[in-house]
Write a structure and sequence with these properties.
The chain is of the alpha/beta class. Helices cover 40% and strands 20% of the residues. It has a 6-stranded parallel sheet, sandwiched between helices.
């Protein structure tokens, strides 16, 4: 039903995080050497405030840059700059512009306006926006592409699994900002998926309040909310929102409850919560970012929107890992059936984009 993607172990994940931190800010990485490289393509990535240590969204987007760099046929040199506040977005993008990078990847809905402005001012540079496609210009600037994902689909699958596994008929979702559409899509998909397989289930949800520098980066708040949900009889928590959601996962581990990760296979990226993690709702950010980089190198870059969903393996569920033997064959079969129907389009998540 699912496939193991990308990283192959906890040690690899730890090494990648360490490497990512080393290249943040003023650091850089060396491109894969190849005698066939007539040009080295410089690709810069700007994170949102969750930073590379979020173990999910920024982490996996940057892995796409690293994967492109590791591909000797692409001749890519990658670098990341971490944002601490929203005020950092324009100046961090500007650093890569000043250094004459070939492509700049910005990670997150909130970087959209700054990215579009920079793209218009620098038509010779390719710009890629992860999780943003709200274009007001028609046509879209020829050097600009947005990567969008159907987060409601993996959210729906995760919800179906939770709805089938809950013992109390109460599950929860601790989420990032409600002003960020992908977060809402995950949460709504999760709730609808749970109710699709279990109409009696109650889904508790909460979104992080707007809080400046702590957006997506408040694990203490996330942990507190999950603990509150456990007090209301929830036995499974979906953490949806970088380090904020990670706090919910940690609460589940400490309380002996079950948890579901987000964006990437958090069994690999966040081993601290492996003992509670039954799966993760994934969007394959690394694959999408590498796809955009490859299009630039190969001369096939097209402006507009690239969509990633279940039909092109752009989203899905992570493996069950330690819970594989604990999840019944009946539950696995039901989740597989939901997945097949979503992919075929015979059912929908009920979430509007």
């Amino acid at each position: 039903m699912v496939r193991v993607r990308g990283l192959t172990g906890v040690m690899t994940a730890a090494v990648l995080v360490a490497a990512a931190v080393l290249v943040a800010g003023c650091g850089g990485t060396t491109p894969t050497s190849s005698s066939s490289c007539s040009k080295t393509w410089k690709v810069g990535l700007v994170t949102d405030v969750g930073k590379l240590s979020d173990k999910s969204f920024n982490f996996d987007s940057y892995k796409g840059v690293q994967d492109a760099q590791a591909d000797s046929s692409l001749c890519v040199q990658g670098k990341a700059i971490e944002s601490s506040t929203e005020d950092d977005y324009p100046k961090n993008i500007g650093q890569f512009v000043d250094q004459k990078y070939d492509m700049i990847v910005t990670v997150g809905f909130k970087l959209g306006d700054a990215t579009i402005k920079a793209a218009k001012a620098n038509p010779s540079i390719k710009f890629v926006m992860v999780d943003f496609g709200d274009f007001t210009d028609n046509p879209v600037p020829s050097n600009l592409v947005g990567l969008l994902f159907k987060e409601d689909q993996p959210g729906f699958l995760a919800g179906a699994l939770a709805g089938l596994m809950t013992k109390t008929n109460v599950i929860g979702a601790v989420a990032g900002l409600k002003t960020v559409p992908p977060v809402v899509h995950y949460v709504q998909g999760y709730a609808n998926g749970a109710k699709y397989v279990n109409p009696a289930v109650k889904v508790l949800t909460i979104y992080q309040p707007e809080s400046g520098a702590k957006d997506f980066n408040d694990p203490d708040w996330g942990k507190q909310q999950a603990t509150t949900f456990f007090g209301q009889n929830a036995d499974i928590i979906f953490g949806v929102g970088g380090n904020t959601g990670n706090g919910g996962l940690l609460a589940a581990k400490e309380k002996g409850k079950l948890c579901i990760g987000v964006d990437v296979d958090q069994y690999v990226s966040y081993p601290d919560v492996d003992s509670c993690l039954i799966t993760s709702a994934e969007k394959h950010l690394d694959k999408a970012v590498k796809t955009a980089i490859t299009s630039m190198v190969q001369g096939s870059f097209k402006s507009g929107i690239l969509n990633f969903d279940m039909s092109n393996d752009g989203v899905g569920l992570a493996p069950f890992h330690d819970f594989d033997s604990k999840i019944s064959s009946d539950v696995k079969a039901k989740v597989a059936d939901v997945q097949a129907k979503l992919k075929a389009g015979t059912i929908t998540t009920g979430v509007s984009s």
